[in-house]
Amino acid sequence: MSETRPDLLARILAFASVTEICTGLVLMLDPALVAKLLLGVDATGLAILFGRCFGVSLLALGLACWPDRQTGEVSTAARGAMLAYNTLIAAYLAYLGTVDHLAGMLLWPVVVLHAVVALLLFLNRNIRRQSG
């Protein structure tokens, strides 16, 4: 069973990377759509600019955290970065939904998705030590 665990971590990180790459691309193309679906608000002016900047950042995060194609290895830095991002974005989006009462139709599914990815990355944090 320990032989499949590094592969599991690589799959989790690849899934998270693809999710962030796709989200980044959508944000770069249409940040107003993401704002509407996620927070239920209309984005204009400066919000569009910042939405596109956030999209560029998500694209870069997804690309940087992609597991090594040849070996399937996952760097500690990539795992840590994706864990931090998913934990913090889940908490912040949950805050926006509960305290600021912002909620589009995708807010809570996205909160759950990020929380689950964070939990899976956290639970698989010692893969190399356990399998080596």
What's the SSE blueprint?
Blueprint: H1 5-29, H2 31-39, H3 46-64, H4 76-98, H5 107-123, H6 127-131
Task: Tell me briefly what this model is.
The protein is mainly α and 132 residues long. It is built from six helices and no strands. It has one domain.
Walkthrough of the structure:
The protein has 132 residues and is mainly α. It has one domain (5-126). Helix content is 74%, strand content 0%. It is built from six helices and no strands. Helix 4 (76-98) packs antiparallel against helix 5 (107-123).
Give a quick set of tags describing it.
single chain, 132 residues, mainly alpha, 6 helices, 0% strand
Shape: globular
The chain-level mean pLDDT equals 91
Between the first and last Cα atoms, what is the distance in angstroms?
A: 13 Å
Total beta-strand segments: 0
Helix content: over 70%
CA radius of gyration is: 16 Å
**How many separate structural domains?**
1
Let me know the largest β-sheet. Answer: none
List the helices and strands in order: HHHHHH
